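quick one, 384 residues, struct below
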Amino acid sequence: MKILEITNVDFSLTHFVLPLMRALRAQGHEVVGVCADGPLVAQTRAEGFRVETVPFVRSYAPLGQAKAFWTLLRLIKREKPDMVHAHMPISGILARIAAKLCGVPCIAYTCHGFLFNQPSSKARQRLSLILEKLCGHLTNLYLTVSQEEAEDARRLHIHPHPVAIGNGRSSTLFKPDAATRARIRAELDTEETTPVIIAVSRLVRHKGYPELLAAMESVPQAELWIVGERLPSDHGSSLDTCFHKARAALGSRLKCLGYRSDIPALLAAADIFTLPSHFEGLPMSIIEAMLTELPVVSTEIRGPREQVVHNQTGLLVPANTVAPLAAALRTLTLNPALRRRMGAAGRKRALELFEEENVLNKTVRLLLGQAKKTNRVHSPAHRG
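---
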């Protein structure tokens, strides 16, 4: 069976979709990745996957979306896949409409968050809901990464049978490692006894960086390591002013490490993980931190509140606030025993709910079961 895995950008393909592509290929299927071009496409191609590029734009720009849609339509007509599995809101809408027009036998979608749940104008939120409902009717298999998104899809009549599959990461890759901790701290000139707070995400405002940088002024005992960069496709105002002010206030306690491929090692060298986002799907970074036995300080929003058990595996604070975030970070910075207890509880919870192999097995089973159910995989009309 030929499957097109379609997502918006190379970052999403590499970090979110590639493990599923591996799992499907291991079952003997031909899997083709589709996303906007970018430097991370090479990583997927290096594993022997074919990746086709489409000029997706992460905005409502009509001309840009039209160009992406027609490119996608031509691609699907040429490829004649047995299944299109789409990801992310805008690329997911375009891919499902194009797949339907091309007569693809099986159309699947994984919802990583709804645009109508994100801060925006009422008009854009209404448009997003209308498009989600339209595309829900075109979707044979509707998956979500979080329970709340599945409940929304059902309650708002987007799809009658959404299935929450979660997200997953490998417990053998993300785990505590004393030797790695010592090595990374030596490389970054950080004392063993210095509490390290780490944030891993794209450098965009809705990840809560203005609040985090301000909060760190009230957490004088700790260093803050920020891992990530702003993608070319990211939009919204720059964080340059926030970081300039933070560098002046925090000095050497702020370490901006940029994009790194050694995330497991960096997490193993840290003491506390934080993600004070304004909105999320079901963050992979929180799962990675939990598996590494780091207590998590995040915001009480969709996604993180399904992952973090407040006062057991971490602390949840209101979004868009500085003082509660600073207080939570201070609490964990000053209490090593609490960090260890929450970290151990977090790994236990992650092993139960977010083990990558289990999530992938469930996803593959659902995808292949739906393809079989359509009973049109080898349809002559489709193949012709």
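Confidence is low (pLDDT under 50) at residues 380-384.
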